[in-house]
Amino acid sequence: MQNPAFVFPGQGSQKVGMGLDAIGLRPDLIDTxxxxxxxxxxxPLATLCWEGPEESLRDTSVTQxxxxxxxxxxxxxxxxxxxRPAVVAGHSLGEYTALVCAGxxxxxxxxxxxxxxxxxxxxxxxxxxxxxxxxxxxxLPRVExxxxxxxxxxxxxxxxxxxxxxxxxVVSGTAPAVELVMRAAESAGARxxxxxxxxxxxxxxxxxxxxxxxAAELAGVEFHDPQVPVVSTVTADHVRTAADAxxxxxxxxxxxxxxxxxxxxxxxxxxxxxxxxxxGRVLGGLCRRITPEIPVHATDDAARLAKTLTALACxxxxxx
Length: 320
Known about the structure:
By secondary structure, the chain is α/β, with parallel strands linked by helices. It is built from 14 helices and ten strands. The chain has helices at about 20-25, 30-40, 45-50, 55, 60-80, 95-100, 105-125, 140-155, 175-185, 210-220, 240-250, 260-270, 280-290, 300-310; strands spanning about 5-10, 85-90, 130-135, 160-165, 170-175, 190-195, 230, 235-240, 275, 295. The strands form two sheets. It has a six-stranded mixed sheet, with helices on both faces. Strands 4-5-3-6 form a four-stranded antiparallel sheet. Helix 5 packs parallel to helix 6, helix 5 runs antiparallel to helix 7 (about 105-125) and helix 10 (about 210-220) packs antiparallel against helix 11. The radius of gyration is 19 Å and the shape is globular. The model is unreliable at about 315-320 (pLDDT under 50).
């Protein structure tokens, strides 16, 4: 395999104990990343990742840096074993890790941005309680139509937030409106509609109020042109310059995640494997269903990480 894509997960992939298997392979990364992150953020992030409690790990302002850091540590393990991506992409929060991998952002700057992003998103939810739900078994146009009908009937905000795969569409908005979309979707023939356990209504216009404040945070950070090809899921297109990266991260707050389009674009460009770098296996499942002809690899525990390193065979010591 010569053209693997590294894909980085976002919020929802967190779990207590994440990162421990990677640290088992590289204990030196505790000081390199975890202790440094604890000092920068003033949080016991390492303890929260490894020991929980789960309730604390679900706090958006904690979840986002925790998932980011776990993916970053896993990335370092892959790099040390000689595994390199041909292209990178991240789902929502995961786009920050992708940009670090591509040399666009310093990891400590990305960590601070991710923490602030989580704080601002959590503040929105405290002010206007929101929700998200996955609609399974309806196509994108039908879900968009249902959202439009609910908005017209109630005046409440609900929008498509994620095009995750054909037949899996995530909606976001005020809690009552999301509940109405779930009921309408099931009445319209959806296989099911599932409420997501998230800390805020991500990727919808309810986040517009924090866009300027977060733009100021982005303006205080140095961005570089990518050294590795990056596909943004805000645009389902390449991030070609530092300015592109800044624009995508700003638009991300209210913009839809175009995961289906991003994956199909990478496949059309010649990607021959998808490697999910970080906790969980959600993105791998999406990639497998979008492009079933392309193999998918996981890294979320020691056994899967070892299998991935062996399959990619990018270094002499690519076996744990």
